[in-house]
Amino acid sequence: MADILQLFMPIIRHHLTISDLSNLARVSHELNDLITPFLYRTVRFHSPGRIDLDDQLLLQLDILGDPRFDKLVYTRRVVVSGWDMQVSLTQVLLTTVMLRQRLQRLRIRMGTNCTPKPFFRPPLDLHNTVRLRVIHLIQVDNILVLQSLGVALKNATQLERLSIWADDRSELKVSSLLERWHTPAQFRLRSLDLRGFSDIGIPAKVMWAAIPTTKLKELTLEFGPRLLVQDSMEFWEASAQAELRPIRLRVNLGVRGIQDFISSFAGLEVFHLVPSDTLRPMEPIRILVDALRRHHSSTLRVLGLCPFLSGPTCMLDVPVMKYLVGALPDIEELRLSQPLMIALCVGYAEIPYGFQTKSLALDMSTGRYF
């Protein structure tokens, strides 16, 4: 029976509940060895917001923290739920589960829906040998937590994808994450996603010296209005000098200088210019489209554009729409964000037969993202 189950387990395991797997594991030693990797592939922790005398979470952490407990070698995913956890429980959770060698992905909400008490209270003394490949941190709202995470991430040698979404009301800066890095990070990111930060806080040249760009192919940056025009222009200049060559780029930094960066390389497949709540002057749409045509027309398949509040040259009017259609005829997905003017432009732009766009998304509101 064990041999048969082993043969078909990759197929039938999706139809078995945790209770079913637990029952199978108790049938025999052979089935226990077979089922155990599936039982501990995902570990779930839930805190009801209080500690009882017979607390199941404490018991669970005690078991998992026992050095004789070796089942976490199979863990690939950790799910944490509940309203609040004390520092001691958080520390046990991180040191027991997060640092397991075979754990590859970690997704944590760092705050509790903007409540006064953050989900993870600082300071956290994280170990510096994180072996995760993917880290996604949501609603980071405390500078001490951000600093402690920076210490841990510095030596995460296998990290490939890093996503940090800060609470935009916390006024955090990217520099707080990097300020204790005296040498470049040992990891080589393929994807970097930073959102909600009010500012970079350091020159972009210093940022890219700390975060190597040799393998960085997916970049998302959405900064707040405190990032000044000269800082944005310096960012694009430093990015070109750092030889940043993304194939997927999503930014709200459409200021003058971005066209020089786009012109410094080839191979973009996805380019999204998302809305910003700042009055920074934006590079005219036609100039951006022309840079994309000259350097990325053979590879670009997804294009998202939105206007900034910086004058008529940044409007998606009829002439610009006609130019866009003629300049980039091979676009497969086009996303536009502007009030009613877009619908009128699309209606009168006389999009020619043969335009290859398979998907056209129109955002008729002014406050929504793509």
From TrEMBL:
It comes from the Eukaryota. InterPro entries: LRR_dom_sf. Gene3D superfamilies: Ribonuclease Inhibitor (3.80.10.10). This is F-box domain-containing protein. It comes from Aspergillus bertholletiae.
